[in-house]
Known about the structure:
By secondary structure, chain A is of the alpha/beta class. Chain A is built from 18 helices and 11 strands.
Amino acid sequence: MELILFKNMSSPGYTPKISSYLEAGGYQALEKTLKEIQPDQLIEMVKKSGLRGRGGAGFPTGTKWSFIPKTPNLIKYLCCNADEGEPGTFKDRQLMEKDPHQLIEGMIISCYAIGAHTAYIYIRGELVHATRVLEKAISEAKAKGFLGKNILNSGFDIEIYVHRGAGAYICGEETALLESLEGKRGKPRFKPPFPANYGLYGKPTVINNVETLSNIPHIVTHGGEWYAGIGVGKSTGTRLFSLSGHVKKPGNYEVPLGETFRHLIFDLGGGMLNDKKLKAIIPGGASAMVFTEEHLDVKLDFEAVAAAGSMLGSGAVTVMDEETCMVWATLNLMHFFAHESCGKCTPCREGAPWLYKIVHRIEHGEGKMEDLGLLADLCGNIAGKTVCAFGEAEVAPILGTIKYFRNEYEYHIREKKCPIHRSERLATIGFPG
Amino acid sequence: MISETAKKQIGETVSRYPEDQKRSALLPVLHIVQYENNGHLTEALMTEVAEILEISPLQVYEVVTFYTMYNRNPVGKYHIQVCRTLPCALMGAEKLVSYLEEKLGIGCGETTPDRLFTLTEVECLASCGTAPMMQINEDYYENLNKNKVDKILEELRQKAK
Ligand SMILES: Cc1cc2nc3c(=O)[nH]c(=O)nc-3n(C[C@H](O)[C@H](O)[C@H](O)COP(=O)(O)O)c2cc1C
Ligand code: SF4
Ligand code: FES
């Protein structure tokens, strides 16, 4: 398979410098855009490509852009979501550190499409290295006339700025991101109004993920039909999957949509660590319901994963072997969600710590059978009743593990202990090696 | 007190946002100020930031308390943050934490008496394919094992001398 997003960085000697990118044909898509393509045609082209957002929800990118009002002289913004906080996801970091100009070119073209003259890259605060790479790349692009006033004599002005977050998972949610960018606590806004009408500073705003935007130059170069020809059905193009957990070769893999989990885990990922048996797969980041061995042949496409009861989410695939206690794994994730709830709405603010406490007592042999009903009840009172989709996310680990591993919960409750002795278990894996 | 050098940096940062949206610079400005003050923020600094950005101290304070990267208490010269989230936990993050606690003689959230190291557990740092991992100040340390940790701590101790 021909790589798209990882193509440049996989060739020997490639660096994040603009010279490498130019040598690889970089910024030609931008020149072509400014010379030959009208903003409307560009939006049509992206619609035709079938590209869907890589941040989690999979919303069609061209359609999202088309919601931006066409009113001339109205200030509009583009925000690149580089908050990458979904547990298991580490692809955007690689895209930014290894090929920053691919993203920047994608952002410039996207700004032209929606008529924005200012764009912000909201990057998670911990990614200091990626921030430096991006800052450097922006100044290189500016020096070459790709950024700034009247770029390439087109009459089009554009500035891109990097904005560092400060360690709050919720700022990856698009409206929380906007609040944070405005210098406030990152608390999601009620929708509607949607950012396309009321976004940053109340102006029309598009928010797109790093990977989504990095695809844009390639779509311009090769055309929407070309992109739509890769993948299956409504899941077009390639996707970066972040493979982690108990596999021999964890890492980011670029795969055409429509391949299977088996291909990703066993062919690309080298199979199970220490050749243990596979027990569970989280198919799309912590917010996705767990899969089991029986789902290995499910296709890596938005619809297929949804039909099988989960979601492709952020493209993070975490693999667990037979010796993993699923109650322990769930407890770990509930700690995450309880910690990261922004506190704006009651079901989530109160519910997440409750869920954590109940799973905690089950894992520690102090649970009661009624707790399983209580968990289900609580989940039902959180999902769909919150300001943002974090509510659905936090119940997913519980609903998924109770669905497929109810027996493990029952064992903990009945036997008043965890079947897997953690200290012995830990001695057999990665650390201390 | 915020230094003149930092104030210059702050000026550049503020210029990235529309003139009537100075407040937007708050998060990056707090990073600059915290960095200069050895990794933590004081009330006096927060008030100064408020003055520079023409907002109320309360607006600064509510932001500082929301985001985990801002420290309101002094931290050691090296702030060790170990990722505890599932992909890292599957690869032994719990054991990594206890090993560090043992080696440093402190618990999570504590600082060594020589003020060299602060240890904290944090959530996923987008480095799950190279688990277990930790961040020390600005740098990532990945695919950790006992030997690597020993070496890293030793190197930092030497550097601090
Ligand atoms: C709780 C929560 C966290 C999110 N975190 C991220 C994130 O870290 N990165 C990201 O790109 N999108 C994240 N999203 C999705 C964004 O809200 C938004 O849909 C996305 O950035 C849109 O870009 P796309 O259309 O290119 O996918 C998150 C959503 C929710 C509800
Ligand atoms: S669902 Fe949770 S994270 Fe989302 S707004 Fe409500 S409290 Fe905040
Ligand atoms: S889980 Fe540790 S870096 Fe992602």
